[in-house]
Amino acid sequence: MKLTPFGAAGGEVTGSAYLLESGKAKILVDCGLFQGGTGADAKNRTPSGRDISKLDAVVLTHAHLDHTGRLPLLTKAGYTRPIYATPASIEMTGLILRDSAKLQAQDAERTNRKRQRAGEPPIEPLYTSEQVERTLSLLRPVPYHELVPIAPGIQAEFIEAGHMLGSACIQFRIQEGSRTRRVVFSGDLGPKGAPILKDYERFNDAEVVILESTYGDRDHRPLKETVEEFFEILKATSTGNGKIMVPTFAVGRAQLLTILLAYAFRKGIVKPFPIFLDSPMATEAWKIYRGHAELFDDEMVRFLKEGSIAHDLETLQYTATAEDSKKINDVPGPCLIMAGAGMCTGGRILHHLKQNLWKPENHVLIVGYQAEGTLGRFLVQGTTQVKIFGEKIAVRAQVHTMGGFSAHAGQTDLMNWVAPMARKSTRILLTHGENGPRNALAHLIEERHHIKPYLPALREEIEL
User: Which among 16, 75, 150, 381 is most buried, taking Cβ atoms within 10 Å?
Assistant: First the structure.
């Protein structure tokens, strides 16, 4: 058996893609986009694997773009075999990839206008909407907790990862001669006790474990404290004229914040004020969420039964068009604006930040991971001036890092998840983390379980 990471390795967090080879088959686990930093575009134009025609299957842990965003490159290169995922992940993947194709087309059009003026030849988008639709036609649903054959000599079982709707940890059972070997991928793990979704589940045995390490060096601030801080910011803003801007991942964080706002208004914690969900994609994601109540935790089910979210959120407005989005600039505070992209790498949030970041009465809430090199990361690091659309903008708004809203497990949860499989004979590979966090997690695993984890490099072929 061999494993070759084609992303999320060597200190990278994004671009998740792992080629797993047995004596009988080759499968790809995830095929995501690199995001953030100056080299991301070049990496995304690099083929995701060796000979794509020899792949037997692709398996998805979940639908986020950094795990699915290069799938259309496979079909573009001739891949026609199944792509396995949970039913909710299939729906989310459709939403995310269609949006990605639209953005690819817009970026290419904008770049080509500049290239034309410079007398340079045009470039093509990374992929087209047609290639996305061909990709989506290959998706095949896999239920949780069932052993499913996916390639010659390979079966897979999906269990809840608690990271986003439909996310999964996957155990592959691989037949090698007379032996069955178990290889487990954590995917992205969610923190225990997060609202809306059920908590992650664990496997009990594996010969090889590929474990994410995004926050391998620390735990997040407790969710209860983060929610209290969020409510305090809402209270302070509701009595003044400030605006709260939230760079929001359309899938996951937008839904979490919307539920917390509904709770705050329902319980009278704060008097309702205008809320703008300035993301058509987040609006569509809500529809998918509502269709998968079987994945909600008991607390969310109870909250839905106790009252009407639509009634709680009478002040919530969905902005479908760019014109609707621009009109928000004319709305006086107090108000809260949720808009993508979540790392401030593009999208409508940039326009809102340009208009409001320099005003001290405003707030920016950072509610998710910010990759190195992104505008969101610069804000977290406390920079006093940023450049948006070529213009220098002072950072005078109050920037709050709301770590407790993260959809990623912290160090304690990562250790808890891997513990049942951590035997001396188990091989643990740490991926999907910057070098600091994954080194810290490796040290703790070695100290606690006497296993020295391996830290793969990008495109390194690893004998299992």
Answer: 16
